[in-house]
Amino acid sequence: MKAMRLHAQASIDTSPLVLEVVPDPKPGADEIVVRVRACGVCHTDLHVIEGDLPAHRLPLVPGHQVVGVVESLGREVTTWRVGDRVGIPWLHSACGTCRFCRRGVENLCEAATFTGWDIDGGYAERIVARAEFAVAIPLAFSEAQAAPLLCAGVVGYRAFRLSNAARGSRLGLFGFGASAHVTLQVARHLGCEVFVFTRNETHRELARSLGAAWTGGSPDRPPAPLDAAILFAPAGALVHDALRALDKGGTLALAGIHMSPVPETPYELLWGERVVRSVANATREDAAELMKLAAEIPVRTEVETFPLADANRALQAVKASRVRGAAVLVVTTPDSAAP
Ligand SMILES: [Zn+2]
Ligand SMILES: [Zn+2]
Questions:
Q1: Distance between Cα 126 and ligand 2 center (Å)
Q2: Would the pTM count as exceeding 0.85?
Q3: Distance 122 CA to ligand 2 centre (A)
């Protein structure tokens, strides 16, 4: 099968992913092999490729927002059948027995493994996944539209929950890429007033078209203090801007897996019981809840599609914030013959 593989971490500007032919994966006892239709491109893929995050294996196939069709099953798999349409998220596996798994926060599992980091991901024609960690894809969505829900959507949803935003809350979103454009729709549906902070005029226009009450730059003050905020941009310096916009008692959730250092913070910015917390990965429950909610709303994902062989170009566009909504690799179509 064809796959885009990384052999050494490097700047995406050097196009480090190489199109190669590799052996087809075989399912282990509790695994499924999925024929990949579409794979979302996430900022985390950039962090893995460029070395902001350490390499866990090389060569590596990145990609962890995978939508495809089950092609074969391990002998213990009873939850899926050949032909089912499934999504494969960032969390490849959790141990189920550590103190975090027992408490229902498998996203913090001590032995967690991740798709497209610890094991090969979805920038390929096939992927192997743990059956118990795959999610069903609602009929409401095409493969390309569903792909960005699997990380951008799910992590944004978890960040939304951890920000304590509720009906009637004023919620600020800092940065407006794939994750924020889904989170905005969820927040509007659940009765929040949403304020979007981004420099990019195309992103501001998309935010307004999706129901943002106000758009501005990150140093700007919103018309009223925020009850909750989510920082999507991986820029630690923006923590101060977000805290300045946040009301007393408000929570700022940091949604990125990697962020530049947060500058020394004057205590006045935290005073008044303001809370800053990070958001780490997501659980299977988050994914199932978001999928149900997304189909109900229904969420409209804006996607810009690229062929598999253009993964470097897609990642360059994500890095430069040139994508309106989410970038998605369209890998195979139902008619394309199995190689
Ligand atoms: Zn665990
Ligand atoms: Zn991701």
A1: 19
A2: yes
A3: 12
Residue 297 CA to residue 331 CA, distance in Å, equals 27
In order of their start, the domains of the chain are 2-150+282-330 (3.90.180.10), 153-278 (3.40.50.720)
Q: What does each of the 339 residues of the chain score in pLDDT, given as a tens digit?
A: 999 999 999 999 999 999 999 999 999 999 999 999 999 999 999 999 999 999 999 999 999 999 999 999 999 999 999 999 999 999 999 999 999 999 999 999 999 999 999 999 999 999 999 999 999 999 999 999 999 999 999 999 999 999 999 999 999 999 999 999 999 999 999 999 999 999 999 999 999 999 999 999 989 999 999 999 999 999 999 999 999 999 999 999 999 899 999 999 999 999 999 999 999 999 999 999 999 999 999 999 999 999 999 999 999 999 999 999 999 999 988 766 444
Nearest to 38, CA basis, from 17, 72, 65? 65
CA of 94 to the centre of ligand 1 (A): 5
Beta-strand runs (E) in 163-291: 170-174, 193-197, 214-216, 226-231, 246-254, 275-278
Rounded Cα distance, 299 and 297, in Å: 5
Quick one: CA torsion of 301, 307, 313, 314, rounded to 10 degrees?
20
Ligand showing the shortest atom-to-Cα distance for residue 113: 1
